[in-house]
User: Fold these one by one.
Assistant:
Number 1:
Amino acid sequence: MSEPDDELYLDAAASDAVPSSVIEAMIPFLTEGYGNPSSVHASGKTAARALDAARASFAADLGAHAGDVIFTSGGTEADNLAVKGIALAQIRRERTARTSSMPSSVPLPAHYPAHRILISAVEHPAIAQSAQWLHDFFDFDVVSIPVDAQAHIDLDTLAREAARGATLACIMMANNEVGTIEPVSRAVRICHAAGVPVHVDAVQAAGTIPVDFRALDADTLAVSGHKFGAPKGLGALLARSRVAIEPMLSGGGQEHGLRSGTQNVAGAVALAVALHQACTGMAERNRSLVSSRDALISAVCNAVPGTNLTGDPVNRLPGHASFTFPNVNGEALLVDLDARGIEVSSGSACAIGRHEAPGTLLAMGMSETEAKSALRFSFREPLHNADIQRIAQALRASMTALHAM
Ligand code: PLP
C-alpha cells in the first residue's frame, strides 16, 4: 500500500484543532496579563477583568447567565461535579436535618428524595462511572433508562422512574457514538414534574448545535472546550443556583466555592473565543455540514453493500456519520483506513489488545459482533466531494483487503 499524500482527519468528535485566532487571543494572558485573578493589585485586576469578560461571553453563547458558569478542566470534571456534587449535597442536607432537629430514630421527611440516580443507557463514562461511584461508596441505586434502536431515550420509562423519586437524572444532549440528538427538553419537563433535577451532558452539542441553558431549564449542563476549537483540558459546568452542589475540590473557594484552584484565565479566554466563533454562522455552516454528511452517508452505503447507518438518520449531529459494516471488525477496518490516510474512530474504548463494543450500540440492541464492526466519521467543516469519494474508495479497498467483501 502506498503512503497517503495527506491525512483526512475525521475524528472531530474526539478532539479537534485549535484555530490560530484562539491561540492568539490566549497569548496576552500568558505573557502580559498573567496575574492571578484573585490578586488585588493591578495585574490581578487585569486578569480578573479578562476572566469576567470571558465568562460573560461564554455564558451568553450558551443562553446562560455569567453566574451560572463554573470553569472546569473539561467535560469529565463537569460531569463528575454535577453527578457527585448534587448527590453529596443531598447527603449533607440529610445529615444536617438529622443532627439539627430530629432524634436519630425519626425517619427523614418524605420530601427527601430517594438515593437513586437515573441515567440514560447511553451516557458517557464520565456520567456512568460517577453514578457507579455513588453506588460503590454511598449505596445509591443507579437506574439505567433504556433507549430505542436509534438511541433515543425512552421517555415513558423515564417518567415512571422519575415518579418513584430520584436525586438526579442525567440525559445527554447528543450522543458521541451515534450522533443522535436526544429529546432533552421533554426529558427535563418530565423530570421536573416529578421534582427530579436534571443534569445534561452537552459535551458533543455545545459549539455544534444551539444550546440554550436557561430555555432548556436544565439544572446543570456540562461543556468541553476541545470539541469546539479550544485547547484540551478546558470546560465548564453551568449550574442554576436552585440546585445545591457539593464541591469536589477543596481550596481557595474560586468559582463560587464550587471549583477551587486558580483559574486558567488564558484558557477561559480561549473557551469564550472558540465558542463564539463556533456559534457565529452556525446555522449556515450546519446546512453545509448536513449536506456533506448526507452525501458521505450515501457514498459509504453505496461503496460497501450491507452497511448500516447507526443512530437517528435525520435528527443527528450535523458533522457525524456512524455505521456498522458487514463481516468485519471495526478496529481492523480503522487501522487499515488509517494506513490509507483516513483517520476515524471506532467510537469505543480501546485498550491494548482489547476492543470493547461501543456501549451505545449494545444499548440500542445490537449484538456484540455487530457493535464491534462500528466506525464513526466526525468533522466540523463541510467535506469536499473529492474527500467523500476518497473515503468511499478507501473503504472499499480496506473491505477488500480485509476479505470482508
Ligand atoms: N461527555 C461526552 C458525551 C463526551 O463525548 C466526552 C468526551 O468525548 C466527555 C463527556 C468528556 O469530555 P472531556 O474530554 O472534556 O473530559
Note: The CA atoms of residues 254 and 260 lie 5 Å apart.
Number 2:
Amino acid sequence: MLGDHCRVLSNVVSSSVEFHRRYGGIVPEIASRKQVELIGPALAQAMEQAGVGFGDLDAVAVTAGPGLVGSLVVGMCAAKAIAFARGIVLLGVNHLEAHIYANWIESRSLGDDAPLKPTVPCLVLIVSGGHSDLVLMKDHLQYDLLGRTRDDAAGEAFDKGARLLGLPYPGGAALDELARTGDPAAVAFPRARVPGSWDFSFSGVKTALARYLERGPSLALGIALPTSGGDILSAAKGGAAAAPADIAASYQEAIVATLVEKTLDAAREFGVPRVLLAGGVACNSRLRQVFAERADRAGLLVAAPPPGLCTDNAAMIACAGWFLLRAGVRSPMDMDVSASLALTSRAPA
Ligand code: KG4
Ligand code: ZN
C-alpha cells in the first residue's frame, strides 16, 4: 500500500470460461466445481509470485457477494480457513465495491491516457455482466446508488447481442472487435432513455437486434419496444441488410450512447468533476472513445483502470479490502455469502 494507492504484488486469474463456452453462458455447477479444483493452486501461485508467506499477512479479503452462491461459498471457505489458521482479520468485500476500487490500483484518464490518482467525491459507472449501476461516492466506502438497470445489464446486452450475431461466449470483447471496422450509424437501434430516473434499460435494444436479424431491416422499422419505463428515441430503420460489422457497431453504439449520456448528465446534475468507470464492459473500446470525446467537451475527467483490472480479478478485492481494513471494518467468522448482496455504505469505524 502506498498512501491512498494499492501496489499489486501478484494477481492470478484462474478462469473456467472454456468449460462454459459450449453452453453459451455460465453453468453455476461447473463454475463452483472448477473453483474447488483451482483455488488451492491459484492461492499457492499468488503467494509465490508475491514472495510472501501466510505469516506476513495482516488480513484476508474475500468476495461476500453478489454472485453465484456456489462460487462465493468456495472463496469464503478458503478465506475463513486462512483467517482462522493465522489469527488474522477477515474482510467480506462487495464485488461491486471491489470493481470501483480497481481504480485505486491503477486508473488512467481516457482523454490523454495520463495516470490518475482518483479522489472522492466522484461518480462511478459500474458496467459488468450482472450490473449497470451509477454510484455517487461522496467519500471513501460511501455509496449512493443513483440508478441501475431495470432489466438486462450492459454486459448481458453485449453477450446476448454477440450470441445473436453468432459470436462465441462471452461475446462482449468479440463484439467490440467485430464492431471496429463497422459503421455505428448503419442501423439506428433504439436507445431507451428511462426518463425521470438515472436507471438504464437494455432489453429493448437486444430485442430490436433479434428482430432485425430474424426479419431483416425493413420489418425492424415497426418494433414498438416499450422497454420498462423507457421511451424510444428511434427504431431500426429499413433498407438493405447491413454487414455484420455494421450491425455490431450500430448495436454497440446504442448501448454506449445510453451509458455515456446518462453518466455525463448525472455528473453535471450532482456537480462532480470526476467520473470513474468500472467492471468488464469498461474495457469496451468504443465506450472509452466516446467518453473521452464527450468528457473533454463537457470539461469532465473520465478515467478507467486498464482492461485487466476492469474484468474480474483478485487484486481489486484486496484493494477494497485495504480500504475496509483502514476504516476499521472487521467481518465476523460466521459471515455468510449473499448472491444478491446490495452495495451499501460502510459505517465509519
Ligand atoms: O466485471 P466482469 O468481468 O464480470 C462480472 O462481474 O460480470 O464483466 C464481464 C462482462 C461480460 O459481459 C463481458 O462480455 C463484458 O464484461 N466485456 C465487454 C468487453 N470485455 C468484457 N463488453 C464489451 N466490450 C468489451 N471489450
Ligand atoms: Zn465483476
Note: The domain at 1-106+311-349 is CATH 3.30.420.40 (Nucleotidyltransferase; domain 5).
